[in-house]
């Protein structure tokens, strides 16, 4: 029996479920491109050459161009007019701007969530924290992608009771960019933080209803990576790919 490509499998699955096969292929390419940008396999400022990428991802040129357009909307890719597209640059100035906006939104959302949180919110937060703790004591390189997923869930669980869908949407976008910087910087900052201790303090303050202390702990946690990078002599542009 002949082997089928990823495109064949995706298209067949979409047809069986009554979905638009072309949209499913675009979504599949979008997710793979986005993950490769976040992980650093497509490094900052890399030109996205469709003719090369369609071989790498096993999809057509039109599908790739549409997926890249979606990434422009995510600010992970920048257009260059008639010259095509590049992966968005990564700079300390951009990280500082991202961090300021994230703090402004997330700290207020946390305070509101703690005020409104009920037993169901606390039970969910406890469950996510327990899962996160299991993979970050210690955090092994092979578990990093799972840790990123749980880290995002933990931050979302903290603010889940603020009852603002738009806040959650904006913070998910900011979180995606923060993850990109963590992936780029992972080799330079290893061992300089006890991330689990930071998470534990935020969790304990939130669960006990101490919103001011929880907000201070969350602020220190979010600021830790940009502050460490700012103190170092290392620049984000020096990294071409993630550490193993």
CATH superfamily of the largest domain: GntR ligand-binding domain-like
Portion of residues in beta strands equals under 5%
Cα distance spanning the termini: 36 Å
Under CATH, the topology of the largest domain can be stated as: Four Helix Bundle (Hemerythrin (Met), subunit A)
Structural class from helices and strands?
mainly alpha
Average predicted confidence as pLDDT: 84
Which architecture name of the largest domain does CATH use?
Answer: Up-down Bundle
Query: Biggest sheet, strands in spatial order?
Result: 1-2
| Element-by-element helix/strand order | HHHHEEHHHHHH
Main beta sheet strand tally, sense and closure: 2 strands, antiparallel
* Total strands: 2
Please state the overall shape, judged from the principal axes of the Cα atoms. Answer: elongated
Number of helices: 10
Kindly state the percentage of residues in helix.
55-70%
CATH class of the largest domain: Mainly Alpha
| Low-pLDDT residue spans | 1-20, 237-244
Number of domains: 2
C-alpha Rg, in Å?
Answer: 20 Å
